[in-house]
Structure formats: C-alpha cells, structure tokens
Design brief:
The complex is a heterodimer of chains A (about 100) and B (about 375).
Chain A lengths: L8 E10 L20 E7 L4 E6 L12 E11 L5 E9 L4
Parallel strand pairs in A: 3-5
Antiparallel strand pairs in A: 1-2, 1-4, 2-3, 4-5
Chain B lengths: L3 E12 L6 H16 L8 E5 L10 H4 L5 E5 L5 H14 L5 E9 L21 H4 L5 H16 L3 H15 L13 H6 L2 E3 L2 E2 L8 E10 L11 E10 L11 E2 L7 H13 L8 E4 L4 H10 L8 H6 L16 H5 L3 H17 L13 E8 L3 E8 L1
Parallel strand pairs in B: 2-3, 2-4, 10-11
Antiparallel strand pairs in B: 1-7, 1-8, 4-7, 5-6, 8-12, 11-12
Helix pairs in contact in B: 3-12, 6-9
The chains are: A mainly beta (about 100), B alpha/beta (about 375).
Chain lengths: ~100, ~375
Amino acid sequence: MEEVTLSTRGALWAWTVQGFPPKNPPYLGENDPEKFKPFGVGYVELPELKVEARLTEDEPAALKIGMEMELVVEPLFTDENGNEVVTFAFAPAPVD
Amino acid sequence: MNDVAIVGIGMHPFGRHEGVSGMEQGAIAVRAACRDAGIGWQDLQFAVGGSAAAGNPDTMVSMLGLTGLQFTNVMNGCATGGTALSTAYNTIASGLHDLGIAIGFDKHPRGAFASDRPVVPIREGDNDWYGGSGMAINPQFFAMKINRYMETHDISHRALARVAAKATRNGSMNPMAWRRNAFSEDEVLQSRMLAYPLTQYMFCSPGEGGVAMVLCRADQAHKYTNKPVYLRAAVMRSRRFGSFEVKASYLANEECVGPTVDASKAAFEQAGIGPEDVDVAQLQDTESGAEIMHMAENGFCADGEQEGMLERGETEIGGRLPVNTDGGCIANGEPIGASGLRQVHENVVQLRGDAGERQVPNDPKVAYTHVYGAPGISGVTILSR
C-alpha cells in the first residue's frame, strides 16, 4: 500500500444538506436541536477520486453540480481541554 | 433444472406490534403460508430464513416443530428477502428438494437505520472521523443520489411527492400496511426536510413484519393450489467497482452501474422476457427518489422519462405499469428481513386476482420485484402464472 497525496480542488459531483442533528455518538459537532445548523455534505471529484466531505455552504440555492470546490479546514467542536478540533471540508472556489 | 412454483403465502401485518417479537411474526407468517398451501410444517423438506435484527431464524424450529429439516439462514441487508427466495428457488431448481419455505422477518426500533460506519473500515485505533464529522448518516446517501439524478435528468420535487402520495394512497387500500392514511403531495413537500431534497414523508421508516412463502417443484404445484405462480427468475448481484453505494467515504472516478442494473438484466435473461412484458412491479422505495431511479435502473424507462410517466399516472394501479401497489416500503415500513418477500407476496396476490380494491385490472400475468440493500446488493424476481 502506498500513500497518495490528493489534489485540493475539484468539481462538486453530488450534494445534500443535512437537515437534522446527527446522534452523538458518533457525531462530535453541535447536535443540540436548539443550536443545530444544517450543514452541506457532498462528493467532490478530484483528479484521483471522488472524496466525500462536509461542505462549507449550506444553502441549496448556492450548490450546483459541477461547481469548482477547494479544500479548506473548518472547526468541528471544542474538546474538554479547550482545543478547537478541525476537520476537512470543501468550499466554493473563488472565481478567478 | 426444475421449474419452481409458489403455492402458499402468509404474512404478519407490518407496522409496530408491542409484545410480539420479530421471530413470532415470522412464525405466524409461516403458519399462514402452510395453511394457504394445505400442508403442515412437518411436510417441508427445507427452509431458508432471513432476519437482520430479530434473531437467528433457524431457532424458529422450536416454535414450529423439531423435524430436523435443512434450515439455512441468509443476510444481505435490505435485500435479505430476495436472497431468501432465490436460495429457496435454487434448492428446488437444482433438484435437491421438492418442497420448502422462504421466511423473512424483522423488528427494528425507531431510528434504527440512522447512522453507520463507512464501508472502507476505520483502522483499529483511529478515531471515528467519518461518523464524528457527521457523514455516517444513511439518508444523506439517498439524498445525494436522487439530488444528482434530478439535476442531471430534470426530475422535479413534485415527482418525489407524487411517488410518496401514491405509496400512502395504495397503503390505505392494503389492510396489512403500517401507514393507512394517504398524504397529499403538498403534505409530503411541506413535511420536515431531513436531507435535501428529501422530506420526512418521502422516507420509509424502520419497522416490523414477517412474510413466508411455500415453494415446490412446478410439476407438483397442483397438489397444493389451483392458482400456482411460477418463478421465472430469481437472481442476486453485488456491486462492481465504481458503483455509487451507501456509506462510501470515497468513490472511484471510473463510474459503473449499480447491482440493480446487473440483477435486472440477468433476471430478464433468465426469464426470457423484457421489461415491456411486465404487468406489475414492486421496486425498492427506501425513499421516493429510489423508486424513481429504480424505474430506469430496472429497464422500465429511460432516465428522465419518469417525470412524464408520473404526471400521467402511468405507475398508478390502473396505469400502464403499476409500481408498488401495496404501498411499498414507504407505507409498509422497512423490516429488512421481510421486505423482499413482502414484494413477492403482493405480486402473488395480484396474479391470483385476490388484491381487492388495489387489484391491478386486466388480469396481470407477469410480475417483477426488485430489492436493493446496503452496501450494494440487489435481488430481482420475475413471476408469471
């Protein structure tokens, strides 16, 4: 087995917006129904493969198949020691 | 190879039944199927049983009779019922036995299918990043798949609502269904958004139920019934590299059709007929988008034609190709081990002409079932009389 470094940009291949707070365990993000904000999830087609990831965009009207996305890091939760724990996500790439 | 007939069917009502275990529901279905065939449990030479969550099926012998018969357990996720039937079919077709029974039952609590691990296993010691970051949620897969399909093939949100409304309308005519109240299309669209574009009323729910069917060598069918239904095909296929399935943390760029397409083609070939010959179809409707996509994946229409077909009512009970005449998973709920057999049960009832107010008119002769299970299993049967 070898490790491959993936590209950081690709086209949005499929998407949805998670509308209800996921159960904990295993979900580590905000799942208090009062505070929960829907979040985007999708597949981004990189040159190597399609990767499933959270999306920074949560508005259906702003998400379209084929739109260019780029890798970002976004905070998921704060642990009991006060450390911010981040995860990978994709954001709409800035239009050149 | 012997021809195989279905000569007895039985079912426990689907829904929620406090105090009745899943296995008891299966046993009740078995007794009803044996009664329907005019036999006793002791006459059966073999059984095939499937259940995901309600216990080891072969232990049912303690409820039904310790005859020492051959009893095989099967499990293929939501496709389990299909596997139970095709395994029973193969046992008779091969000549090993002449008379046997396929059984499926389950009992799932609320929220049972909500989340899962990815198919690519997380290594020992790694944190569960997949579930931890909120991606291990089954409704998301179904939403992403139909959302992409809708954008690519011009399917409307109203089409999703039409399917769900049809399911509950058909369910209201099915005394064995869980949900007996019909929703309007607007009620479906206005229900809570679970994973865009799918709302709550577009989804099936985990549930309970049991189904059994007695199969025999076709040339002996007259001993048990004057309305035998013949199995023309019973096939199972798993996924190939590149197909888009549940719980995939990544997908290959080389795309491949799903196991549904493979199972459907193999079944039509085995039966020697085509989609145009089918009079009634029960297609996996985990949520209403799945029914729409499965219409095309099973060869009944081209991608995108579903929009017009639904507008014109072609998949209604009185239409050109009735789909999910008993209300499907949406109205019956989804007890994994039983659903594949529920579909065949409904087809047998339709072919016998016993479906009452939900009877497909004009003497249907050929019936089709399709199940799909995570993480990429599909089963198809074709019946005729």
